[in-house]
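ok, trying the design again with the full structure, not the truncated one.
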């Protein structure tokens, strides 16, 4: 798509955009190169991680340490127990967090970070496998590890060629690739993901069900089919759902909505004498209380309605909810 540039736009603004595009292009090129270079060492690394009985411990320092923290978080949230240990802190006591059942992923783009290399003898004493992620296959860290993954980039995206940019992007992406590959190999499911993300919008989308938001018992608006519309308006208004379930002989026979009321008024039906059963919507849409709320929302959109009556497996009315109840949860 051709970009339209305002005639009043400053050269500085367009220059900034050009620089930004150059950075993104260079980093994208680094990722493309990395993807094409994945080989048997990647398979080996995944096998080692899958065989790990303890935690996957990520370590690094500087920018590699920051990237390592995110990689550890990705492993942990996708089914592989993991934590990050700062290389310098490990040298001063945090090494005690690591046991012989752990696997270590050591990150250093140069492969020569003194703090990381100083940890290797202690890691070796624990007899756990070590995976190195570096940009230098002949570095000390690469040679001392059981498995080496190379993230070498042609150049950093920094105009000075100094600030870790393309290399940190490549390292982060490789960590994601390891975590997601192992997660898929383990059969990590949506339910597993929900179990480790109970809070926030994401967790709610994966866990909240209709029964968690529906109005039930005394909060459920119910009118009798034979009753006049006028007599039931207070019930509908008081329960504030914009609808009421219509019951006859303890059976659900319909729903009366705000729309049904407007249509009755338009037809000039006498509200004092017209029963709900003559003005209601028959065969109302119903849903199970066990359906995920996100699925219920999709059905609302598909059927162009803003609420559901809720029935159990025997067709018994147990609740009702509308789109406002869904919006209060924050999932949409």
């Amino acid at each position: 798509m051709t970009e339209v540039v305002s005639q009043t736009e400053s050269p500085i603004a367009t220059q900034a955009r050009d620089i930004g595009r150059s950075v993104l292009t260079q980093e994208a090129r680094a990722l493309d190169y990395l993807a094409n270079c994945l080989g048997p060492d990647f398979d080996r690394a995944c096998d080692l991680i899958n065989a790990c009985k303890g935690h996957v411990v990520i370590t690094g320092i500087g920018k590699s340490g920051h990237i390592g923290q995110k990689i550890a978080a990705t492993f942990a949230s996708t089914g592989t127990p993991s934590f990050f240990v700062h290389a310098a802190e490990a040298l001063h006591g945090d090494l005690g967090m690591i046991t012989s059942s752990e696997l270590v992923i050591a990150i250093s783009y140069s492969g020569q970070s003194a703090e990381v290399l100083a940890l290797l003898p202690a890691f070796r004493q624990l007899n756990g496998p070590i995976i190195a992620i570096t940009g230098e296959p002949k570095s000390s860290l690469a040679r001392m590890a059981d498995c080496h993954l190379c993230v070498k980039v042609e150049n950093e995206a920094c105009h000075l060629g100094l600030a870790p940019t393309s290399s940190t992007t490549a390292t982060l992406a490789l960590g994601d690739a390891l975590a997601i590959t192992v997660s898929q190999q383990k059969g990590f499911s949506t339910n597993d993901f929900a179990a480790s993300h109970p809070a926030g919008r994401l967790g709610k989308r994966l866990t909240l069900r209709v029964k968690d938001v529906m109005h039930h018992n005394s909060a459920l608006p119910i009118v009798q089919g034979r009753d006049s519309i006028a007599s039931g308006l207070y019930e509908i208004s008081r329960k504030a759902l914009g609808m009421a379930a219509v019951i006859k002989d303890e059976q659900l026979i319909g729903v009366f909505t705000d729309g049904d009321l407007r249509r009755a008024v338009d037809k000039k039906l006498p509200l004092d004498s017209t029963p709900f059963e003559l003005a209601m919507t028959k065969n109302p849409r119903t849903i199970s209380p066990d359906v995920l709320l996100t699925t219920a929302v999709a059905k609302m959109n598909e059927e162009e309605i803003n609420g559901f009556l809720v029935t159990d497996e025997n067709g018994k009315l147990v609740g009702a909810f509308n789109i406002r109840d869904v919006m209060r949860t924050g999932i949409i």
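Keeping the full-length input from now on. The CA atoms of residues 266 and 306 lie 22 Å apart.
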